[in-house]
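To fix ideas, we now present one chain and its tokenised fold:
***
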Amino acid sequence: MKQYPSVLYLFHENPLRYYCGNRLRAYSLLNYFKSRNIIVDFVSEVNNDRGNPWTFEEQEQFKNAHLCRNFFLLNDRFSTKPSKKNIVNYLFKYKIPKLLRQRKQKRHTQETLPNWVSCDIQQQFDQILRTNKYDYIIISYAHFGKLIDNNPYLKKTVTTILDTHDFLTAQSKEQRKFVLGSFLQEEIRRLDLFKQVWTLSLEESYIFQQFSKRRIHLMPPVFFLHHLNGDQKEYSKRYDIIYVASDNPHNVDAVRWFLDKVYPKIPKEVNFCFIGAINKKIDAYDNIEQIMQVDDLTPYYRASKIAICPMLSGTGIKIKVLESLSYGLPVVANIRGNDGLISKVTNGVQVTDDPILFAEKIIRLLGNDAYYKEECTVALNFYNQWYSNEQFKSKLDDIFVVRQSL
């Protein structure tokens, strides 16, 4: 009987909330494993200081999705803050022990990048390794690198893979005590704990290849969802422009730049659709429909003519750009919106940091039908050439050695 590979996959959030780029990647990986009959045990955190806890309803929904064999939720006892109504319990069972632990960790480590592995998380992860055998262990984010650092429960035959998601040194440069050399050195050290390293963007792949001893795989994002690929049907375009963004600091600076410097130069009859938590950071506008959250972006992309990605800072590939291209939508972006793409030209993304040119590019796309259709074709062709589901599956098939079973 054919033996399929077994995988332990750690991702700290709920992949079914795939309206965010990193979760969409996790969801796509789980769907790939299912399509290839790869045995998967999925590990996440029930709660953490970074927010996005798993609700009981979400846990049940994930189990019913049948995307894995076993579903493990790690729980840090200090991640859930008890009520202050019982002040004695709060101080002696939570606050004081947590401060002591943080002080001990700070005293015994020289790490510069954040470490998301507590003693509780490590012990629970080790228990999974003690009781189960895996061919591959995939961990998302170098923040969790400590999980396998000198871990006595790792078998030598296990292939460990770090899915980086981001270039953490660049993400940390605004920290008060940031030192480029020590931050980069620590990030490379964590990469070298693994046998393989996955990156999303071309630039990150190049940087890591210069310093890491490990094999670096460029593993771009892909979307195992419904798209316009090959669909020639005409859809009603309710929106001229779509913008999808969370409320992280990079997006907040970007949308303020756009609304202050570009928006006044665009005709008032042009209508927008803003989707995501970024709406919490802006005022109401007559021609901007603001939607906080949707379960499926497909109807909104199909109802839009073009997308924008005003990004002044940040690192790595922009999922919102790739997602727009996958629907055949031309994108107008700042130079940071073009980061990470395999090709910087003839890719469906029109780039400028000049607010006047930014507005002019939008107006031309909306006002010149022949030019617009040409750019739609360029966007979709670029996506299909480099980022299609088939490309993604082929890369993973080579890593997990499943071709002979297809």
